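hi support,

uploading two proteins for the ticket. first:
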Amino acid sequence: MSMTIGLYRAGDTVLHRLPVGAKMLGLAVLSVAIVALRGPLLSLGFLGVAIVLALIGRLDLPSTARALRAVLVIALVIALLQWWLFTFDRAVESLLDLVSLGLLALTLTSTTPTTETLDAVVRWIRPLQRFGLDPERVALTIAMAIQALPGTLALAQETRDAARARGLGRSPRAYLSPFVIRVVARAHETGDALKARGLGD
């Protein structure tokens, strides 16, 4: 299970040097095109574009494969459902589209420091302050969401390892119950820490 989702990797590629606004705009345009344009051949073309961008950003192949493994599992399940409900072509299209979107998002987060992304978000939504929106609080929420996913995956891996060490690796109950308890406990700890700093009032 990957622990590398959303982690920036320093580099000097064209994608690393591009402004964060241009990268996020490009991701938005490509995402809309992937969803709006239909057909397996177009989906294959978009996957090719995503792979080329990942190569330009010099993403590490083993880390990328591990990070996309969870996306691939979800995409396969959805594709099988699409095949059952509709057609084989639609299933292939869904699979390719989801993998393309996952790879594009991974390329963006791997070539853009999280702090730059958050600073840009704060700048973009600052005009909304007059309507009562707090840009700093929104940025904090986004940062916590980004950090929560790798942390949750780490808890899942630790809990699964503990279940296997007890010889209960095949028991969903031995894995899921401790995992849910630990996730809830971490959420309470985070809430207490924010409240202690006056951020939850």
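and the second one:
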Amino acid sequence: MIETLKANLLSPIPLAFALGIFARLVKSEFSLPKDIYSALSIYLLFALGLKGGVELSHASFAAIVAPAGVTLLLGCITPLTAYAAMRYVGRFNASDSAGMAAHYGSVSAVTFIAAQQFMVRVGAPAEGYMPTLLTLLESPGIHIALAIGAIQRNKQLIAAGGHAAAQGSMKDVLHEVLTGRTMILLVGGLIVGFFMGEAGWKAVSPFFDSGFKGALMLFLLEMGVVAGDRLGDLKKVGPFLLGYGIVLPLAHGALGVVLGEWAGLSPSGAAVLGTMAASASYIAAPPAVRLTLPEANPTYSLTAALAITFPFNILAGIPLYYALAQRLAA
């Protein structure tokens, strides 16, 4: 377990994030140009959608329908509980709460990979279509959270001054969320990936597969810079974020395991689903939140997701979810 933790924490993605924070701590002027950051966001979101769609094209309907159903249910529940805990227990504003809900309603692909590797090491690999569930869980959590944030922001604008512009935009909130860049790239990519299948994927994989991790490193480097700019905010909310980053994943993880077992997944599959529900995204959610809710403080969500929840899941969460799944299956 210690080797697993060390291997994951010393992997390129967390290291790039740490370098970004270090750059700000030493007051470096480094930051990615805005256009490059925007291009990386588009690339990462579309690549995730395409990969999920290709994996979906491999699975039979009968095998995946029940697990897919509970995964979508999880994708609706987790952003709501994450938002409620942040807003009504932590007393954060609506935008910060929605930003956090987008991260905890979505999935950490790195944590997902670690869970898959854990199951292989214990000699019980999970079902092959688990990457498809990853994509199914990714989108609802982000978009429900962003919709909550946009609606709450509009209500506050109207309450503050009753501006006509705010009232007008209130009518367009759902249109804004459903047609936003994140929805087009993630869900659109999933549909495109499903129809183009493996043959189509081979034609574009040199671009979308080989360069993915490198682009992700650059993206996390910039995210580290953004988080490093606002580390001072943690002095006000540190203890709450520590509890939030551990208790909420435990609750989401247990729920994911129970629903996975109920849907007929193996104990390993249920544990991987629980791990996905317990994880917090730092790939798809940050660009989505930054594009739709730019006023949300990224320090809260990125620090909780990367510095608290990620190491906790790697160190103790995954074995706990697997132990729960085995107990339920016994």
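thanks. also noticed: Residues 164-168 have pLDDT under 50 and may be disordered.
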